[in-house]
Design goal:
The chain is of the alpha/beta class. The protein has seven helices and seven strands, in the order E-H-E-H-E-H-E-H-E-H-E-H-H-E. Strands 3-2-1-4-5-6-7 form a seven-stranded parallel beta sheet, with helices on both faces. It binds ligand 0WD.
Length: 256
Amino acid sequence: NFSLDGKTYVIMGVANKRSIAWGIAKALHQVGAKLIFTYANERFEKPVRDLASTLEGQEASFYQCDVTNDEAIAETFKQIKQDIGIIHGVAHCIAFAQKEDLQGEFINTSRDGYLLAHNISAYSLVAVAREAESLMTEGGGIVTLTYLGGERVVQNYNVMGVAKASLDASMKYLANDLGRKNIRVNAISAGPIRTLSAKGVGDFNSILKDIEEKAPLRRTVTQDEVGSTAYYLLSDLSQGVTGEIIHVDSGYSILG
Ligand code: 0WD
């Protein structure tokens, strides 16, 4: 039985209907999960609530959580514990870098820009996992979103690629720490998808075009396709899988 009926998941990083986090939310909703949404600041509260209200029969909960703030993360999970109780997983779909650091040469990345990208895009997974762990008393799954630019050089991805490499390694160390509690930690390496965050990456259109021309499937992937892989990783379908990076990228990463 691979239904998520009676299970509760925290979805972090829905900004709008194009967000990958929204693709994950829809996939988990379809198989009966209860959803908890977190958003970075009050600006996103209404859009997230409006989107969630389109999920039929879903009684979602909403919390503000700026992941640069340890107290905010602790407070969010404390509130979730009080209001809802135990959770079975977290989808971490959060990243940020300054626009000026997503173009030109990586060598020009400032110290501040470097630290900011790592703070929001990599350290946040560690801080979130630590707080989520105490609510995951029945075991469960944590999934984060990464990108090929962390494994090899992708033009313009620059500091975000270095932050994704850090995220990937953090994911593996967390998988090692949390395995004893039957909490599995994995990453999905998504192919490029047009979202709010993607707009910040210099010449994103040519990255998309390259996938359409060269990836084995000759097309880009959708948020829903990432969503169904997240369902796999967050459910018992993937019981023996932890510390893994699954590429949902039309096969692009196998090309040399
Ligand atoms: O091509 C793409 N779009 C790919 C994205 C390819 C491969 C991976 N990814 C990754 C991104 O790097 C990110 O980790 O997927 C994840 C989700 O990104 P997205 O869906 O492309 O982008 P977007 O819709 O802009 O969502 C990014 C979220 C927003 O959600 P909220 O609800 O919080 O507004 O990251 C959030 C941003 O606001 N975010 C933060 N959330 C909490 N605290 C913070 C912060 N300080 N900063 C940014």
